C-alpha cells in the first residue's frame, strides 16, 4: 500500500496492544524507516515516542544486538527517568567489571544480560535492516531475541525489512509463521517517493527532476536524493541557469544517475553515453536486421535511446559523456561540464537578448502610444545582456535610445558596457574580429569603430600586409595567420602598406590582392572582404593623387586584370 495508507495502518496496529510483533516490509530505499520516524515524531503515545530503535546492519552476534538495543532504550533519556538513572548506575558498575576482565566476551555477555530487563521493560523495540544482518547471526538467534523481548520484558516489537533482499528466504517464512502478528507491505509510488526525497534534499529544479523520476517509476528515495544532489551540483555554476539549459541538462543527469545507481531495472552500461550518438544509429541497428539477430550490445543501445527519447533527448553528445565521468569519478566539480553549460547559456541568452532587442525596435516603431519612460526601461533591461548582441544591433539600440527623452545616459551606457565585453572577448581570442570581416561598409557607433580599428591594427602591425603577401607569393600557401591579417586590415592599413612598399614588396601586395579582388570583393572563401577593402584603398590613393606614378600603376594593373570598372567611385 502507499505511504499515506501505510502510515494510517501502522498507527492503528501500534494502538492495538494485543499485537506483540508487527512487520513493516517493502523494497529498498522506499521510505520504511522514514515512515516509522514520521509516525514516531507525530505520535502522542509515550511508548512510541521512547521506542528503542536498533539496526541489524553488520551485527554478527546476538549480544552486540542486545547492546545496541540497550543503548537506544536506556541512554536516550537516562537523565529523565528513574529507570534510566538506575540503568546508568548499573552500567557504571558493569564498566568497572569490564575493566577488570579486560573486555572479555564473557564480561560483555554478563553486561548485556544484566541490563536487558531494566532497559527494555515494557518498551517498543524497533529492529531495522534485518536483511542486512551478518551471515554469522542466525535466524534462530533473532527469533529468540524477539521472543525474549515479548515474553520476558513485556515488549512489543516492530520489524522493518526489505523482504526482496533477504538472503535466507526461510528466515522470513519462519518469522511470518512463528512471530509476526500483523504485517504492512509498503509500496511507495513515484510521486510519494519524490515528494519525500525533495523535502529531504530541496532543489530549485524539482519540477523538472520529478518528470523524469515519475516517467521511469522510480521509488527509491535514497537514489532520488542522490540524483537531486547531482543536479544541484552540476547546475550551480549557472546562476540562475536559462530554462533551456535546465531542459537540456536535467533529463540527462537524472536518467544517467538512475542508471548509475541502479534505480531503474536492466539499465545499459553507461559506456554507451561516453560516445556521442548520431541520427543514423537506428540505421546501424536495423541494418541487416532480418539476416541476423541483434547482439546484446545493440539491444542495450536501442533500449538506451528509447529511454532518452522518453525524456525528450533525441541523441547524446559530449555533455552526457562528461556527466558519466562526473558520476564515476565522484568529483564535486566538473570544469568540462561547466564549460559546456556556459556555452549553452551564452547561446540561449544571446537568443533571448536578440528577441528583446527586436521587440524594443517594434515597440519604438509601431506603438507610438508607448511613453519614452517605458521604452527607456526596456533598454535598461538590455544593458545587462548587451554582450550577447552584435555591434550593429548595439549601435542601432544606442541611436534609438538617444532619441528618447532622457535616453542619453542609457544610450552611452549600452556602448560602454558592450565595449568592456568586447575587450574581454579579444583577450580570450582574436576570432572576435571575424564578425567584422565582410562588413566593410557597416555603419557602427564611433566608439565601436575606433575600438575595432585599433584591434585590427594591432593584429596587422604584428605581421605586416607586405610580409604576408610576400610569404603567400613565395610559398604558394597560407595559414590562419595570413588569412586573419588580410581579413582584418582596414582601408587605411592597405593604403599605408601600398604607399610604403617598393619593388618585390609592392609586386607581392598588388599581385596577391588583385587575385583576391578578382574572385570576390566581399565573400572570398579564405580572405572574406579583403578584396573589397583593398579596392577601396586603391580608390583612396587615386583620389588623393590621381597623377602620381603610384596611381597610374594601380590603374594599369587593374586594366590588365580586366577589373578596371571596380575603380569607379560609384562601384
CATH topology of the largest domain: Rossmann fold
Number of strands: 5
Question: What is the overall shape?
Answer: elongated
What structural class results from the helix and strand content?
mainly alpha
Biggest sheet, strands in spatial order? 2-3-4-1-5
Give the second-level CATH assignment, the architecture of the largest domain. 3-Layer(aba) Sandwich
Mean pLDDT: 81
Helix content: 55-70%
Low-confidence residue ranges: 101-107
Distance between the termini: 83 Å
Total individual domains: 4
Largest sheet: 5 strands, parallel
CATH class of the largest domain: Alpha Beta
- β-strand percent reads under 5%
Instruction: State Rg.
Output: 39 Å
Give the number of helices.
Answer: 26
Write the topology of this structure:
Blueprint: H1 3-15, E1 21-26, H2 32-42, H3 46-49, E2 52-55, H4 62-74, H5 82-100, H6 105-120, E3 124-128, H7 139-153, E4 156-161, H8 169-178, E5 182-186, H9 190-200, H10 206-215, H11 221-235, H12 243-260, H13 281-286, H14 296-310, H15 318-329, H16 335-366, H17 372-383, H18 391-402, H19 408-428, H20 446-462, H21 465-475, H22 480-488, H23 491-500, H24 503-519, H25 530-544, H26 549-560
Parallel strand pairs: 1-4, 1-5, 2-3, 3-4
Helix pairs in contact: 4-6, 5-6, 9-10, 9-11, 10-12, 11-12, 12-15, 15-16, 16-17, 17-19, 18-19, 20-22, 21-24, 23-25, 24-25
Amino acid at each position: 500500500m502507499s505511504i499515506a495508507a501505510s502510515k494510517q495502518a501502522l498507527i492503528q496496529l501500534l494502538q492495538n496492544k494485543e499485537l506483540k510483533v508487527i512487520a513493516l516490509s517493502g523494497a529498498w530505499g522506499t521510505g520504511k524507516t522514514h515512515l516509522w520516524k514520521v509516525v514516531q515524531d507525530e505520535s502522542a503515545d509515550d511508548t512510541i515516542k521512547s521506542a528503542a530503535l536498533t539496526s541489524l546492519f553488520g551485527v554478527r552476534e546476538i549480544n552486540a544486538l542486545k547492546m545496541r538495543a540497550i543503548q537506544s532504550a536506556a541512554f536516550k533519556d537516562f537523565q529523565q527517568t528513574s529507570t534510566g538513572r538506575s540503568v546508568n548506575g548499573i552500567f557504571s558498575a558493569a564498566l568497572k567489571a569490564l575493566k577488570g576482565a579486560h573486555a572479555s566476551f564473557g564480561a560483555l555477555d554478563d553486561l548485556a544480560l544484566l541490563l536487558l530487563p531494566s532497559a527494555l521493560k515494557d518498551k517498543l523495540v524497533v529492529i531495522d535492516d534485518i536483511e542486512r544482518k551478518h551471515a554469522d547471526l542466525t535466524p534462530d538467534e533473532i527469533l529468540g531475541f524477539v521472543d525474549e523481548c515479548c515474553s520476558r520484558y513485556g515488549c512489543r516489537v516492530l520489524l522493518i525489512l526489505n523482504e526482496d533482499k533477504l538472503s535466507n528466504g526461510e528466515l522470513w517464512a519462519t518469522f511470518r509463521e512463528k512471530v509476526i502478528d500483523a504485517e504492512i507491505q509498503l509500496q511507495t509510488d513515484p510521486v510519494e517517493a519524490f515528494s519525500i526525497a525533495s523535502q529531504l534534499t530541496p532543489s530549485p529544479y524539482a519540477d523538472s527532476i520529478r518528470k523524469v523520476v515519475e516517467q521511469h517509476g522510480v521509488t527509491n528515495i535514497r537514489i532520488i536524493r542522490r540524483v537531486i544532489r547531482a543536479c544541484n551540483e552540476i547546475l550551480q555554476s549557472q546562476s540562475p541557469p536559462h530554462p533551456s539549459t535546465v531542459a537540456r541538462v536535467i533529463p540527462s543527469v537524472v536518467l544517467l544517475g538512475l542508471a548509475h545507481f541502479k534505480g531503474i531495472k536492466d539499465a545499459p552500461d553507461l559506456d554507451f553515453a561516453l560516445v556521442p550518438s548520431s541520427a543514423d544509429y537506428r540505421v546501424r541497428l536495423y541494418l541487416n536486421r532480418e539476416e541476423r539477430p541483434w547482439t546484446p550490445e545493440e539491444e542495450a543501445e536501442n533500449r538506451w535511446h528509447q529511454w532518452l527519447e522518453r525524456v525528450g533527448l533525441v541523441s547524446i553528445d559530449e555533455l552526457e559523456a562528461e556527466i558519466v565521468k562526473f558520476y564515476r569519478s565522484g568529483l564535486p566539480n566538473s570544469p568540462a561540464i561547466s564549460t559546456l553549460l556556459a556555452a549553452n547559456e551564452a547561446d540561449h541568452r544571446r537568443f533571448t537578448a536578440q528577441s528583446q532587442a527586436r521587440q524594443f525596435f517594434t515597440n519604438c516603431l509601431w506603438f507610438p502610444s508607448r511613453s519614452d519612460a517605458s521604452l527607456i526601461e526596456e533598454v535598461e533591461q538590455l544593458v545587462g545582456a548587451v554582450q550577447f548582441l552584435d555591434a550593429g544591433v548595439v549601435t542601432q539600440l544606442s541611436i534609438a535610445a538617444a532619441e528618447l527623452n532622457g535616453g542619453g545616459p542609457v544610450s552611452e551606457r549600452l556602448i560602454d558596457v558592450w565595449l568592456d565585453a568586447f575587450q574581454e572577448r579579444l583577450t580570450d581570442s582574436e576570432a572576435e574580429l571575424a564578425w567584422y570581416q565582410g562588413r566593410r561598409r557597416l555603419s557602427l557607433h564611433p566608439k565601436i569603430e575606433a575600438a575595432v580599428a585599433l584591434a585590427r591594427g594591432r593584429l596587422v602591425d604584428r605581421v605586416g600586409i607586405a610580409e604576408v603577401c610576400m610569404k603567400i607569393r613565395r610559398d604558394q600557401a597560407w595559414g590562419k595567420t595570413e588569412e586573419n591579417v588580410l581579413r582584418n586590415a582596414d582601408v587605411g592599413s592597405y593604403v599605408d602598406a601600398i604607399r610604403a612598399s617598393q619593388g618585390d614588396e609592392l609586386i607581392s601586395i598588388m599581385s596577391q590582392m588583385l587575385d583576391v579582388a578578382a574572385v570576390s570583393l566581399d565573400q572570398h572563401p579564405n580572405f572574406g572582404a579583403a578584396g573589397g577593402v583593398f579596392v577601396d584603398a586603391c580608390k583612396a590613393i587615386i583620389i588623393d593623387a590621381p597623377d602620381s606614378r603610384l596611381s597610374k600603376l594601380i590603374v594599369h594593373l587593374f586594366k590588365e586584370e580586366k577589373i578596371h570598372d571596380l575603380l569607379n567611385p560609384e562601384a
